[in-house]
Amino acid sequence: MFKLFLCLSALVHLSGALSPQCSAESFNSIVPANATVVLVEEVTTNGTFNVPAGDTGFPTDPARLPALCAVQIEMPTEGGTTFNYGLFLPKRWNGRFFVFGNASWAMDPEAVTDWAWRAMHLSVIAAKEVVETYYNQNIKYSYYNGCSTGGRQGLKEVQMFPDDFDGAVIGAPAWWTVHLQLWNIQTTLYNYPETSNGYISNELFQVVAAESLKQCDPQDGVTDNIISDPRGCHLRIEALLCDEHNSTDCLKSTQLDTLYHYYNDWVIGNQTFVFPHFEIGSESLWGGGSSPDLDYVQYFLGLGTNFTANDWDPSYLVALSEAMNPGNATADDFDISPFHSRGGKIIHYHGLSDNSIATGSSDYYYEHVRRTVNPKGIDLDDFYRLFLIPGMEHCSGTPAIMDAPWYIGGTTQASVIGDDSAGYWIHNKSEFHNPRHDVLLALANWVENGTGPTDLIATKWNDEDKLDYVTRQRPICMYPRQANYVGTGDPDIASNWECQSSAY
Ligand SMILES: [Ca+2]
């Protein structure tokens, strides 16, 4: 059985429709005959929902909830698999339908299809019916919010089922599955095994990170420990070369060759581009020495467990991966004009210090959508905006040597931030719970009021665990514009920066 615990909740308002009973009987009368009501649980105001054991898609118990009814429903697919989805139905509902994407994994072909797109779409269709019947009221707006695999699921929805959502927040999407999965292995192999001549230890990567910061931080115009324009930096890695004066915190020529791979696109055969490179400024999270995870090749591409790293043949594997496209998971349809036609909006973001999915894959997708829809007379800014966040890692966080502002209310970001000393959490704070500081509220503002964001304010606290005090805020500009310091005032205050056209 494939299991997807999809969280569908409605943002809470003070006024709204009062809900009916939270009981198995009421849901049994709502769901189709082939569905099973797995769980019904009432959560009181400020309560916690205890996630069922083994639910990998929901790693922590959601707390501080409004009064709501939690329900989990299981349904069959036409492929003979089953999927689960969960709903949070607030007592007072404002008519918004909100879907949170998550990460799961699957092995057999039908389950791969569920993982790729089917379980999400079927969940959305089924859940919308349940919600509208439960409240006896139509959904006013539907939103999607996901990062990483969740971002890929969101793009897949936009591409295949443009009517499912009015708006989608897409974070650091793992959209290019057929290339990304192999690139993950390739980047591991760059620095494997530990006994190889070019091996770079985790400790040495910190030396690399310090050197790139030293060179590239000032090149963006402001020396602030943040590499704001990694693409505009000329980084000379030979500065790291060991010599007669330095033989410890330095790299040998063979190690520089390894480093070169990280900083450059993965190309195969006759200069065929496969996947973009890691960005300057993500080095402190690079690592190596561990054996590559070959699950994708062994199971998804069907080459079996006899396939080892010694059998690595990129040209063959890339062609095979493209031909198979397991589960049709790759979200590579650049013609999203149907989503534009129905009035849909997308806010897409990606950290420029992402060490997991190369940031360039996001602007590759975005620019290919531009190439596809511009000739149709569609202005991308009208419905699809991209925001690259200097110094942000994968979906959240920042390297300690940068301390860049990264919080924009993206998926899972609040979950890595603690409470303040008075016991308040981030969503209690009105200064962050607004469209300038919260990307989901920015999307809702765009869809419902027609005001699309030209920038978002990112925040860094001194200690996110304690939510103690803000140390820095920066505008994150709509791509390809960049934030430039106005030249006077505290550079840690957002209003002292302006979004301007970049050189590229
Ligand atoms: Ca800088």
UniProtKB/TrEMBL annotation:
Signal peptide segment: 1-17
UniProt key word Disulfide bond: yes
Pfam family, one: Tannase
Enzyme class: hydrolase
Keyword Hydrolase on entry: yes
Keywords for the protein's UniProt record, in alphabetical order: Calcium, Disulfide bond, Hydrolase, Metal-binding, Serine esterase, Signal
GO biological process, one term: antibiotic biosynthetic process
Name of the protein in its database record: Carboxylic ester hydrolase
